[in-house]
Amino acid sequence: xxxxxxxxxxxxxxxxxxxxxxxxxxxxxxxxxxxxxxxxxxxxxxxxxxxxxxxxxxxxxxxxxxxxxxxxxxxxxxxxxxxxxxxxxxxxxxxxxxxxxxxxxxxxxxxxxxxxxxxxxxxxxxxxxxxxxxxxxx
Length: 138
Known about the structure:
The protein is an alpha/beta fold. Helices cover about 30% and strands about 25% of the residues. It starts with a strand and ends with a helix.
């Protein structure tokens, strides 16, 4: 997984199994904290690694750029990612860019959020909702 350094902006690769730990930036050596923003998934293998290896629950938001409710829930997911940094990971899958993932998980409506724990699906949430409701689903 790629995590950006808050100090210098460098992209740092952090294994999914170590996402809750504080790492060091490869460029400036500053501390790189667990992600406080949703992680954009750009490949199927990225999501597979994250779900399989994460030591904390993973909330995956399936969305699309044209979806009004998806855009409305985005700032709420930012709040969840910030509030739960280190105890949960929030990831986003653009269902148009990675339709194979949307098909694999039977996504029929967006936004749909799936909570994975221990590599398995634990819960589904569908529709736009406030951060508090999303966190209750974790």
